[in-house]
Amino acid sequence: VFGDLVDLWPAVLVHLRRAAIPASGVLLGLAYAMAPTARANPAVALIALLVLTAALVALLQQTLP
Amino acid sequence: VGIASSDVHRNKGGGTGWRSKAIAFALSSGIAGIIAGATLGGIGQLVPPGARLTLVTLASLFALALGVQESLQLGLSPVQCNHETPQSWLRGGALRWALTNGAALGLGCTSRIGFWLWYVIPAGCLAFADPWAGAAVYGTYALARGLAPLGYLMTARYLWLRRLGDGDSLSGWLLTHRAAAQVSSGAALACVGAAVGLLVGP
Predict the structure, then answer these.
(1) For residues B76 and B79, what is the distance between their CA atoms, to the nearest angstrom?
(2) Which of A29, B6, B61, B115 is most buried, taking the most CB atoms under 10 A from its CB?
(3) pTM score, two decimals?
(4) pLDDT of B31
C-alpha cells in the first residue's frame, strides 16, 4: 500500500496544482464574505488574508515565462 | 520553473543531488522573504498610525480599481523589472545559482512580477507595521515560490517516466493558462481591496 501511495503522489500533486487557481479563488471569496464577521478581530483577519494572498501570488507567478 | 532550466535539472535522475539544490533554493528564497518582510514591517513603524490608516484606506480603493481593470484585461501592466534571472549566475555552479536565484525570486521585485496582486505583499508588510507579521506574510510568499520548483521537478520526473507528451507537461500547462491566471489575480486583488476597505475603512 505504501508503494502505491508513493507512486500515486506525483499524480496527486498534478491534480492539486490544476485545482489550485480555482480553489484559491474560492478561498479568497470566502475571506471576503467573512470580512464583516472579522471586524471583531480585524488584525487576525487581515494577516490571514495577506498570508493567503501571498501564497496565491507565488502560485500564480508559476505561469510567468 | 526556472530551476528546471539549470544544471540542477540535469542530475535529476542521479540520486538526491538535485533535491539538495532545490531545498537550498527554497530555503534561500524563504529566508530572503522573511528578512524583507521583517524589514518592511520595521519601516512601517516609522509612519504614524493615523497616516497609515489613511494610506491603507486609499490603497484599498486603488487595489479595487486595479483589480477590476486586470480581471477585465484592460492592459495596464504592473510596474516591474521585466527581465529573467541573469544567465551569468549559472557560471557560479548549481548550488550558488540555487542560492542566489532563490533569494532573488523570494524577494520578487528584482525580476518579472507579472501581477498587480504582488504589490499587496510589500504594501501589507508596511501597513501592518509589525516585523513578525511582515516576516510571516513575505515569508509565506517566498517559501511558496521557493518550494514550487521542487514540486514541479517531482511531478515532471514522474511525467517523463510515464513518457507522456509535451502537451501534458505541467510547465506547458502553466504557460498556456497565463490569461486565466491574470483574470484570477485581478479578481483576487479586487477582493483583497474590498475586504481591506471593509475592515479598516470608516
Answers:
(1) 9
(2) B115
(3) 0.76
(4) 96
